[in-house]
């Protein structure tokens, strides 16, 4: 069996024992190393020359990718400029990683197989709950639920640590982006009915507060035809008695006090009421 093809099938990095179990001979492995088709990463592990550097680095140091790093690799929202996060067995000895890498030593909820290079999602979410600020963790959890990668019933069936149980009580799968989760989380103190991804006039809006106050949160690339359609939809909302408010990503993430002040004034004027 061709070791290069089997390695490609396994993501470019794997244990030698897994290749041998799949039918790759010791001779084929040796010849591939001699030709430079694969290389030894760590004793018992090999990788293709162009294998994912994050995975290769984790394997080389005897850890696996976890927390926000694993979440990012699954397409979930994560805080910008997050350092690399990895997980190590709580019984591991002589783990040495660069100083900027965050290592999590907690015992995993779901056992990690010996071939794992990236943590399982339940483990990832549990580590995030204990590592990240509540708001950031909530965004990641809701992102996973919204994408259908996990649901509350599955999470309720495992022994979660207290921070994760608190997140499970709050997380909902309806927010379509991290910005929406942040918006709802920061306004929850107002005690208002907030419905993310509400369907109004044949289109979804990011958030409906009360019965008439519509919030739209524009991304960094909100231009061109999309912006034209959104402006037209805002006009139709106004004609039908709704009150649309539109905020930019930069306002929500960097100038929240201004956004909150506008929402508070709109509520004070009864704009959220029918």
Automatic annotation (TrEMBL):
GO molecular function: endonuclease activity
Keywords associated with the record: Endonuclease, Hydrolase, Nuclease
Sequence ranges assigned to domain DUF559 in this UniProt record: 188-267
Pfam families: DUF559
Highest taxon in the source lineage: Bacteria
Protein name: Endonuclease domain-containing protein
Organism: Microbacterium croceum
């Amino acid at each position: 069996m061709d070791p290069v093809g089997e390695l490609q099938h396994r993501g470019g990095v794997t244990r030698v024992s897994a290749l041998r179990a799949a039918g790759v001979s010791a001779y084929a492995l040796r010849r591939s190393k001699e030709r430079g088709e694969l290389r030894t990463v760590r004793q018992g592990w090999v990788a293709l020359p162009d294998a994912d550097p994050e995975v290769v680095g984790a394997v080389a140091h005897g850890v696996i990718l976890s927390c926000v790093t694993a979440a990012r690799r699954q397409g979930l929202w994560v805080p910008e400029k997050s350092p690399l996060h990895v997980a190590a067995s709580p019984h591991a000895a002589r783990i040495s990683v660069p100083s900027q890498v965050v290592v999590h030593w907690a015992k995993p909820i779901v056992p990690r197989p010996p071939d794992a290079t990236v943590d399982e999602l339940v483990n990832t979410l549990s580590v995030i709950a204990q590592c990240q600020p509540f708001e950031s963790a909530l965004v990641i959890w809701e992102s996973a639920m919204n994408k259908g990668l996990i649901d509350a019933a599955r999470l309720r069936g495992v022994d979660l640590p207290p921070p994760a149980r608190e997140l499970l009580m709050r997380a909902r799968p309806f927010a379509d982006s991290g910005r929406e989760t942040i918006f709802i989380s920061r306004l929850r103190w107002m005690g208002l009915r907030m419905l993310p991804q509400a369907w109004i006039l044949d289109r979804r809006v990011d958030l409906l507060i009360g019965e008439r106050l519509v919030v739209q949160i524009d991304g960094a690339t909100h231009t061109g035809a999309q912006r034209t359609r959104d402006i037209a939809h805002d006009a139709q909302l106004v004609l039908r008695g709704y009150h649309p408010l539109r905020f930019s990503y930069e306002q929500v993430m960097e100038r929240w006090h201004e956004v909150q002040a506008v929402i508070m004034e709109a509520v004070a004027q009864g704009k959220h009421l029918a």
